[in-house]
């Protein structure tokens, strides 16, 4: 997050940051003067929340219990805490039901809460069928219109994720919340197929690299790794990499995925371990201890994409990116 904020702080079009947790909010707020909004749940820790309030962090209100807790804290601090109200329009996660107007109005009347936003979240905006997205947006607009008709002045309404922002300006409201597309990735194959030729081009900005830490020769018939899941079909060169599932490199990639060395694909051999994995080096690849290896991204004319790894691991590319361990250094390349 530090690296992302340091880059986006320079962008005038970026009004602020919307994050998933209180911890992320405190980290972002320590690096920027722009607004920081928490979108998901937060722990009711008086010390941490008070610190975030002093730094101007905006809190989500998704039920009356959270609202009352913040109201009491605001009273004890003799200040109004800035909040955005979360409306559930059919995703069935956090938020007040869109048809529960009485609860929303209770929050709006609390003396120590300053409501500056109302927001929601789409459940199916990445799909080719836009039907449920339109239905959810109509529900959200119903809430917006009702609040405006009753005279409530709320500066910001927001609902649009990457997929919805790409689909149509009708979903943009007062702010859009770019997530995966910020990293140069399409939200889904459906969105890519529908809109790639029309107006959008994405270039992935992330490359995940490591280096070879050991090389050895494996004889024909010898097993490789835990569980003896791969046996050499011939004498081969093996390279050991200091990356495993603890780092976010999924164990389901065992014996199925490839990495890039010298711009060429090299197969994972044996099971991915907790903090190591092994690859076969074809004879024509010149490599040694210390040679760079690309786990995700481009090297030469070839690419290992997040979508490719997700297909192998039977998941989505969001998870491939999100699970890369935060302890791994992020380096900004100009």
From TrEMBL:
Superkingdom of origin organism: Bacteria
GO biological process: D-alanine biosynthetic process
GO cellular component terms, A-Z: cytosol
SUPFAM superfamilies noted in UniProt: Alanine racemase C-terminal domain-like, PLP-binding barrel
CDD domains attached to this UniProt entry: PLPDE_III_AR
Ranges where the Alanine racemase C-terminal domain occurs: 205-333
Pfam families: Ala_racemase_C (PF00842), Ala_racemase_N (PF01168)
Molecular function per GO: alanine racemase activity; pyridoxal phosphate binding
DNA-binding in keyword set: no
Residues reported to bind substrate: 93, 274
PANTHER family: ALANINE RACEMASE, ALANINE RACEMASE, CATABOLIC-RELATED
Protein name, per record: Alanine racemase
Organism: Candidatus Komeilibacteria bacterium RIFCSPLOWO2_01_FULL_53_11
């Amino acid at each position: 997050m530090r690296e992302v904020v340091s880059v986006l702080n320079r962008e005038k079009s970026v009004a602020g940051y919307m994050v998933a947790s209180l911890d992320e909010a405190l980290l972002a707020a320590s690096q920027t003067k722009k607004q920081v909004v928490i979108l998901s749940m937060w722990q009711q820790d008086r010390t941490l929340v008070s610190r975030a309030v002093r730094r101007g962090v905006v809190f989500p209100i998704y039920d009356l219990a959270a609202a009352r807790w913040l109201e009491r804290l605001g009273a004890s601090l003799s200040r109004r805490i800035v909040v955005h109200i979360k409306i559930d329009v059919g995703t069935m996660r956090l938020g007040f039901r869109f048809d529960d107007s009485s609860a929303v109005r209770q929050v709006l009347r609390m003396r120590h809460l300053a409501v500056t936003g109302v927001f929601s979240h789409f459940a199916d905006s990445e799909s080719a069928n836009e039907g449920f997205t339109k239905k959810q947006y109509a529900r959200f607009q119903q809430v917006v219109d009702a609040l405006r008709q009753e005279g409530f002045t709320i500066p910001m309404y927001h609902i649009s994720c990457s997929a919805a922002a790409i689909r149509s300006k009708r979903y943009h409201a007062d702010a859009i919340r770019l997530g995966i597309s910020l990293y140069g990735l399409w939200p889904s194959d459906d969105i890519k197929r529908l809109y790639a030729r029309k107006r959008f081009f994405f270039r992935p900005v992330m490359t995940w690299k490591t280096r070879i830490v050991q090389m050895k020769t494996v004889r024909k018939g010898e097993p490789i790794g835990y569980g003896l899941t791969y046996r050499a079909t011939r004498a081969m060169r093996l390279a050991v990499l200091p990356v495993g599932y603890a780092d976010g490199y999924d164990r389901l990639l065992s014996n199925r995925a490839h990495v890039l060395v010298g711009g060429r694909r090299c197969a994972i051999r044996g099971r991915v371990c907790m903090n190591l994995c092994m690859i076969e080096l074809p004879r024509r690849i010149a490599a040694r201890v210390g040679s760079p290896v690309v786990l995700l991204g481009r090297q030469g004319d070839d690419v290992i994409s997040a979508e490719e790894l997700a297909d192998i691991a039977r998941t989505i590319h969001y998870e491939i990116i999100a699970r890369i361990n935060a302890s791994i250094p992020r380096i900004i390349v100009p």
